[in-house]
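Q: What structure does this chain adopt?
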Amino acid sequence: MEFTAKQIAELIGGRVEGNENIAVSTFAKIEEGKKGAISFLSNPKYTHFLYDTESSIVLVNDDLELEHPVSATLIRVKNAYEAVARLLQLYEQMKPRKKGIDPTASIAASASIGKDVYIGAFAVIGEGSVIGDGTQIYPHTVIGDGVKVGEGCLLYPHITIYQGCCLGNRVTVHAGSVIGADGFGFAPNTEGYDKIPQIGIVIIEDDVEIGANTCIDRSTMGQTIIHRGVKLDNLIQVAHNCEIGENTVMSAQVGMAGSTKIGSWCMVGGQAGFAGHIQVADKTFVGAQCGVIGNTKGNGEQLIGSPAMDPRQFFKSMAVVRKLPDIYRELNDLKKQVAELSSKE
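A:
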């Protein structure tokens, strides 16, 4: 499908600067622009590409001041990054959705399948499971017994959802993820460890997205809960009885120990780790590779380092760490001087 600059500007509330009738049918990065593509510019580091790009249309911020003439038609908007995100969402929605049930899929007789559902090759739907309208289940995904999947969900290949877990509406789960595996519960005894049965479930609320190969463990008792609007990257571990608040986002390789509660609207950088049985307040920013071992103080707190600390304290500490080799040499010199003085007494 093709759209003109004028049509795109109307969709996103932008202002055309150039040929409003020029049409595009695809997207391209500004540095890889080509005729018939739309690009965007939001990071000042890429501004120089604007003057040479071959893209037909470029989304730019309202306050951008041109240093040279450009050949591309510009659409000025308040926030180019947000605008291209909206366009990409519209583009994705226009793609035809898969429908129908592959003959190789295994669907239990007691399962309930909604309207306009797609179930791919060799997918498995367990006893008593419920699949909502418009949900897409790609090949080799396994839905256990008694699982509830809401409407408009997108479950990519090779996902496993264990028995009894619940997914809300418009949940996206990427390939290889496991939802509802046993939490890591073992009681030591004189001969080794006794497994503690994990009899709880996982609840994932509406509009959650879960990255590839992420694991969310079922609770020992009760529920592991991922609240509405949460976005999880690839390779994240959410342990048993954890809770993640609404609209919190986590980058790849974050690890959460059991019974950790993270508030709403938090941002967590890659490879951050959380000790068990702690509470992280709403709107907390946790930097990459941060180690959070205790409750956080309150809304808006920023943490970096391991163990986690205020950024100012962290940078002061790092300034001292860089001086440690010199301090060590000076200390050894002082010890020698003290030893020499003592030998003369």
